[in-house]
Inverse folding.
């Protein structure tokens, strides 16, 4: 994990290295170094405590169990129920994952340490988004395994085709949750407020994601859900761009 | 006249309707040191947060390295070292890991070497691998000061750096301030009561609800002011 996120020139002097090359590459290298350092630090903290992983995976599995008990594992609408369960679990994993990624920074006041560093606020946002996405991916893997077991799905093409759909949805959701968690973290009971803010804004992408998921789980090819995937891509671009541009303004103190 | 590292012009800060800072004027130039004293709750910590660009002033103008903080290039923050009331350290990382992380995001050469050097300078070699949550308040304060000074900043803003420190710790911080001034950094810190640092011409300011009043000015600042008065 540490190796692929380490952008420093091996064994080299970063200060002197930064002086070489053109300004664009210097700033790109600085951005990648800051991004890598923050992601590595967050993952190290998570490996040490395991808090987010345990919370996300257990919550996601719990949601699936409730769905199975409510609707039953079989039936003609099995694919639709499985898709609904997947997206409900992802929504909760997204809000929880984004909150956890920012909570550690807020609780210790360390977000101020990051803001006072030479790392661009947009890079801090990108790192937090990446960490939220990794947390969501953990939950997503657990959900997929439980989906297969509980809904008697087959390990095959349908399940493989579900991965890009879930991934596209997760990127947009993580981007939106990270931005809104930054805003809601500034008010009392902000963690309670987050789902209230996220769900209405994510609803169009949620519809696209759940429709596409139901279709691929029912055995349809990805080309049959191209419209839904394009919509998910559009929302990804929108949410990531909004977060990247607005984070600087919402993270600063009054 | 050397470049002003920090220029505050008629800064005011309100929390809702409650005024905290009023008409603050202050300039920090390379090699200058000043201490701001004031009673509890008068706004010293808020002043440091405004001066470092973390909090926006409600009125007035703040320039850091010649630019407003919102327009300041991120790379310029490498020139700024700040200690706040919180030490900005991760409780679940060790002292060494915290300094290495900050050295990485400041793009310093060989973060591990920097971290080891600063741990030694603040006397925390033996506690290097302890998580911050296990350190005493004084040890955490030492580590916070190491974090703030890690990149040899040009402008150093410290919120009550001597709090929670024993005699050795206070002497260590005084030594670090002297070193910073020797390399032409500007140092501004807050304290509850006026204090002296041996060998340092320390400007003394009192923060009150009416504003920031100079009680004793740093000699170069005093000489400049008297020169201006004579010319006018």
């Amino acid at each position: 994990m540490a190796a692929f996120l380490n952008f420093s020139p091996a064994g080299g002097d970063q200060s002197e290295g930064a002086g070489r090359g053109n300004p664009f590459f210097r700033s790109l290298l600085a951005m990648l170094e800051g991004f890598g350092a923050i992601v590595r630090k967050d993952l190290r903290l998570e490996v040490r405590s395991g808090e987010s992983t345990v919370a996300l995976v257990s919550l996601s599995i719990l949601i699936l169990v409730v769905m199975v008990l409510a609707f039953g594992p079989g039936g003609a609408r099995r694919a639709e129920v499985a898709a609904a369960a997947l997206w409900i679990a992802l929504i909760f994993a997204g809000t929880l994952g984004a909150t956890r990624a920012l909570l550690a920074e807020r609780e210790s006041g360390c977000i101020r340490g990051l803001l006072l560093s030479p790392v661009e606020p947009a890079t801090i946002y990108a790192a937090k988004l990446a960490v939220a996405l990794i947390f969501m991916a953990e939950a997503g893997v657990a959900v997929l395994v439980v989906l297969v077991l509980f809904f008697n799905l087959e390990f095959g093409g349908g399940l493989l085709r579900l991965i890009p759909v879930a991934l596209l949805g997760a990127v947009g959701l993580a981007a939106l949750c990270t931005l809104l968690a930054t805003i809601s973290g500034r008010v009392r009971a902000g963690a309670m407020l987050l789902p209230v803010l996220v769900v209405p804004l994510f609803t169009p992408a949620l519809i696209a994601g759940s429709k596409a998921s139901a279709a691929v789980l029912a055995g349809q090819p990805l080309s049959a859900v191209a419209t839904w995937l394009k919509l998910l891509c559009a929302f990804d671009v929108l949410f990531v761009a909004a977060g990247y541009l607005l984070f600087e303004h919402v993270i600063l103190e009054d | 006249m050397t470049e002003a590292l920090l220029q505050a012009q008629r800064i005011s800060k309100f929390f809702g309707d409650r005024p905290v800072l009023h008409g603050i004027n202050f300039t920090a130039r390379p090699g200058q040191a000043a201490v701001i004293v004031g009673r509890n709750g008068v706004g010293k910590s808020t002043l440091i947060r405004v001066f470092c660009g973390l909090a926006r002033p409600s009125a007035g103008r703040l320039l850091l390295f010649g630019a407003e903080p919102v327009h300041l290039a991120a790379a310029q923050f490498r020139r700024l070292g700040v200690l706040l009331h919180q030490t900005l350290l991760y409780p679940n990382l060790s002292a060494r890991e915290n300094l290495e992380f900050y050295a990485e995001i400041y793009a310093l050469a060989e973060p591990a070497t920097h971290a080891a050097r600063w741990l030694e300078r603040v006397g925390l070699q033996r506690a290097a691998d302890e998580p911050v949550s296990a350190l005493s308040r004084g040890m955490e304060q030492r580590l916070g000061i190491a974090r703030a000074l890690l990149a040899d900043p040009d402008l150093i803003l410290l919120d009550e750096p001597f709090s929670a420190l024993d005699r050795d710790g206070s002497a260590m911080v005084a030594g670090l301030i002297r070193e910073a001034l020797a390399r032409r950094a500007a140092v501004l810190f807050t304290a509850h009561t006026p204090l002296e640092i041996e060998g340092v011409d320390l400007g003394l300011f009192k923060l009150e609800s009416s504003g920031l009043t100079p009680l004793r000015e740093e000699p170069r600042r005093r000489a400049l002011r008297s020169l201006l008065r004579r010319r006018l």
Remarks:
- Chain B has six helices and nine strands.
- Residues 81 and 148 of chain B are 5 Å apart (CA to CA).
